[in-house]
Amino acid sequence: MNINGTPTRTLRAHPEHGSVDIIDQTRLPHALHWLRLSTLDEAAHAIRAMQVRGAPLIGVTAAYGLALALSDEAGDLHLQNAAARLRATRPTAVNLHWALARMEGLLQPLAVAQRRTAAWREAAAIAEEDVRQNAAIGQHGLVLLRRIGRRQSGVLNLMTHCNAGWLATVDWGTALAPVYAAHDAGLAVHVWVSETRPRNQGLLTAWELAQHGVPHTLIADNAAGLLMRAGKVDAVIVGADRVAANGDVANKVGTYLKALACADNEIPFYVAAPRSTLDFAAADGAAIPIEERDGDELRRVHGLDADAALAALQQLPATAAVANPAFDVTPARLISAIITERGVCPAGRLNSLYPEDVHV
Questions:
Q1: Are residues 189 and 71 in the same domain?
Q2: Catalytic-labelled residue, pool 234, 241, 248, 328
Q3: Could you tell me the pTM of the whole model?
Q4: Which helix (H) or strand (E) holds 80?
Q5: Has 241 been annotated as catalytic?
């Protein structure tokens, strides 16, 4: 996707220097800042502190984090400890665990002297696979979008929640991949972007849509139902952090409410997710762990002060009791279809696209 007209990916690997560059997403949309990761500690912090966000990008970053960890020491114990350290950073996004399991499965049988080179090579393969899968999601989703009737003005009005664009992946995105494909194909598309409190990932969605020239409007989260009821939304499309075997979907908190509003207004509700987000070992949504994040994310609001400097505003006392679940689970019955790199299927029929995984 584009930044100021220049095709850009969210991650740049430098195996020859033993480092990886990421976009520090905690500084967006106010500043575009590239951050260099050179150690396991820095990679783990980037994931935990949400300098990288989005399940697919978290998985890719974890893979590179393991490669960074093996730069100086690649023995069995160090490999296991590094993987455990990265695995503990975020519990809900299954891509993290999928990527680490893939890396460990490849590296453990190898001689210690071979592991460093193999780790960088496999992390790059995971990154390239992410790009291909997201591009395929975009094309499968484009077929769906072409079929949706426009309720107003001939423009296809879509709504999304959180950030599931190219900032959440290496490129293209998941939920926004069909949006970019539609825009690039010449379809008249407009996106309603919910702000997604408390971390305001919707601001990142608005930023990247603006960079690529896609018409959009930012809304408060709670305005979604009103817009749907007024006939101003033709479909909702979101990403996912984990999809259970039965099609239940964990995504950023607030997704479930949008799915309920869609059901009440007979609006299609789509989920876009690559294979690495599907967890066939989780029978249903009840098996998905829900991350509870620091309460200060609610107590403080981040933005620019009067001097255009990044600042945090305390909106609640430090002692105020708050609850901050980062995700919720949308049941399969509320999902019109799931879009993957292999095609589109009903939420409860993932086995039709991935028959090799039904035994897991």
A1: no
A2: 241
A3: 0.93
A4: helix 76-87
A5: yes
